[in-house]
Amino acid sequence: MHSLSVHTDGSAAEALQISQRLIQVGIALSSETDLQRLLALIVQQAKELTHCDRGSLFIRAGEELRFFVVSGDKQLQDLCIPLSASSIAGYVVLTGESLNLPDVYQLPTHVPYTFNRQVDQQTGYRTRSLLTVPMRDPSGQVMGALQLLNRLQPSHPTPLDPDQVVEWSQPFSELEARVAESLASQAAVAYQNVQLREELKSAHLETIFCLSLAAEYRDQDTSFHLKRMSNYSRIIAQAMGLSNREQELIFYASPMHDVGKIGIPDAILLKPGRFTPEERLIMNRHPEIGYEILSKSDSELMQKSAIIALTHHEKFDGSGYPRSLKGEEIPLEGRIVALADVFDALASRRPYKEAWDLVDIFRWVEENTGSHFDPQVVAAFNRGRSQILEIYHCYREPG
Ligand code: C2E
Ligand code: SIN
Ligand code: SIN
Ligand code: FE
After folding, report:
1. 138: in domain
2. Ligand 2: residues whose CB is within 6 Å?
3. Which end of the chain is more exposed for a tag (fewer CB within 10 A), N or C?
4. 208: in domain
């Protein structure tokens, strides 16, 4: 969003300009989906609208205030203070009143709050004028405070050194206080929306992970296999240069690859020895059973997981199952997960086999490149080898 300066001469034209600017800011805030970027955007916009030098945000978290300092476009710190009326931000959050203080080093004597000079000392900064406004959500609840430091003349020279900032610092006008309050309320709504969205997303992803675990529960008693193979899949996807979004989709979709094992009888799945050809045929139905289960949803993530479930046992030379797909007929995510899954299966103990040594596994992968595995996927796997070994060591089976 471009920067429009608001000149506070009190005219009707100016009031209109401010309203228009606030509407634009509201739209920008409501379309931001990342929490950290949203916080930075709120402070950035507040700074531009009130011509101040710095801004910070306090978000209420139980009996604490989480503190985000934003200077320029950079996030400097992330710390917590107790929620109490003895701090300026705490007072504003608890009372819901704005405080517009011309000089925080010369506060009136009878007030309950004091200015905490520690942050100034730590950052080598000097705060003089300070405007603190509540972030009020539509139900009237105060969920935090927006704090703006050192109102400057729009015509100030840039950059200013800390001594000059104090010299140029002047009180915020009443109009600027109202503008900041309005912005802070919009920010409260945007913040709650992003937070809700993130909660829903993580609840959704956790549900999926739990269901994947339920499907594996009979033949694997820990979640480590899923954690490892989904991380391996992401590392390979990253080393292949896929987009962040594609990497994330593969990461979240890959744990569902064996959901179809739910349809395989215990007598086969848990057989302590090698399969007979008949048992093998039954076991080989698990990719299609998984696809049947997962393809019922239209979500992009579930569609991806259905494709992975269906194709993770295809082999590059066409000798895999269920469709005997060959080369690039096999969707890329299926080729990636095939390697991640086999690498981890070989490294793990199963009812029918012991765990292999790493050297033997790497040799096996090498020997089966071009036959079982896509050479480009193997190349990416080799580029990501140090990250893969990190995951291998990090998610070890207990005992
Ligand atoms: P899984 O145990 O997770 O193994 C996944 C894939 O890793 C296997 O797919 C295979 O490509 C590779 N793999 C695992 N162990 C070995 C091994 O000892 N040697 C070699 N060369 N490759 C291995 P695959 O073969 O299509 O098997 C799919 C699933 O069927 C396996 O998943 C496992 O649950 C089951 N399974 C396969 N063979 C047997 C068996 O002989 N006995 C039992 N009880 N289950 C088996
Ligand atoms: C995602 O896209 O990463 C997960 C959200 C979903 O598809 O429900
Ligand atoms: C890809 O993942 O880039 C292509 C594979 C597919 O979605 O079929
Ligand atoms: Fe499988």
Report:
1. yes
2. 201, 204, 248, 252, 299-301
3. C
4. no
Query: Which pTM value belongs to this model?
Result: 0.69
Which residue, judged by its Cα, is nearest atom 3 of ligand 3? 332
SS3 at position 376: helix
* Nearest Cα residue to atom 6 of ligand 2: 301
User: How many other CB atoms are found less than 10 A from the CB of residue 132?
Assistant: 28
In a domain, 4, yes or no: no
Question: What is the number of domains present in the chain?
Answer: 2
Lowest mean pLDDT among 3-7, 18-22, 149-153, 207-211: 3-7
Residue 240 belongs to domain with CATH number: 1.10.3210.10
Place of tokens 């009136």: 108
Measured by CA distance, the residue closest to atom 34 of ligand 1 is: 269
Looking at per-residue pLDDT, the higher value among 163 and 47 belongs to 47
CA torsion sign, 257 to 263 to 265 to 266? positive
Per-chain residues with Cβ under 5 A from ion ligand 4: 258
What confidence tier does 73 reach under pLDDT thresholds 50, 70, 90?
very low
Residue-number span of the structural domain to which 51 is assigned = 12-195
pLDDT of residue 9: 60
Last residue of a domain, one of 195, 227, 247: 195
Place of tokens 């000798």: 319
Give the separation between CA 227 and CA 354, rounded to whole angstroms: 20
